[in-house]
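Weekly modeling sync, notes
Attendees: AB, CL, MP (scribe)

Item 1: holo prediction request
CL wants a bound-state model with dinuclear copper ion before deciding which constructs to order. AB pointed out that an apo prediction alone won't tell us much about the pocket. Agreed to run with the ligand included and paste results into these notes for async review.

Input as submitted:
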Amino acid sequence: MISDPKEPSINIDSFWMPRQGSSIAKEIDFAFWGVYWLDIVMFVALMAAMAWFMYRYKRRTDKDKVSDVTHNMKLEIAWTIIPTVIVIGLFGLGLRGYLQAAVAPAEAYEIRVVAQTWAWTFMYPNGRVTTGGLDGEGLVVPKGRPVKLIMSSQDVVHSFWVAEFRVKQDVVPGTYTTLWFEPTEVGDTALQCTEYCGKDHSNMFATVHVLDEAKFKEWTEKNPGEELPPAVWGKQLFAQRTCNTCHSLDGSRIQGPSFKGLWGRTETISDGSSVKVDENYIRESLLEPQKKIVQGYPGVMPTFKGLLKDKEIDALIAYLKTVQ
Ligand code: CUA
């Protein structure tokens, strides 16, 4: 694993802004600061003019006459044309940035992103899978190469946000949304869900590791779990897939049944029938969790269909057998 078990943090370059970590960051910041300074100049100029007019044209005596000027063509043309040009310029700036952000280069490296309450899963073209959270390896991307994310949600609306990359996109159930960026700085930064999605929304984060091209190639070529004994790999998967969010190992009740002494026990199902916990029940519960829900628990477990490979399910089963 590359990451330390701690919450990821954002690299701060200036007092106001996170580091510019992607190729588009400069453009986004330029547009932001352009509008920001324009606002400040306009505000100061307007307030100064207002104060001056209040002082200069105050009605001091009853004999002060109201001006009979009704219009000024030059002035009116000026205050129409100048703001129009400014606004069109801002639109052009925004459109250029938007088009750059909307269309991913054809040669982009594609990563599937799956969001669920409250975890991120990342799937790479070579079959590697990583997850977010404290124990997950996080999102691993190459420096200097465009990366395209194809994202979907298993349940509610989430939102993918990496401040250093200046990119943000909603992740929605029932459809795919995409996002692309080209990292420009090697190192770690933070990905955070920015759509309120329930109790543990604030824990729905992941570390983003930007590796240089050689290290990234090395990383994509190995899947370290497969070389471990199944029960050991299963224990890692249990943590990485954040099973522990809902299933305790010490008998305490969280969202789902505790896994203490799980193997071989007989569970009562919501329809009153019973089932013995064996390989097939665990497999079915991972792939079709709503089919046999243990009585007294809400059916809130998301499916892991397509997210866990058969080898990984085998490893999880091997691990659960060892939980006493
Ligand atoms: Cu997912 Cu907030």
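Recorded for review: DSSP finds six helices and twelve strands in the chain.
Action items: CL to compare against the apo run; MP to circulate these notes.
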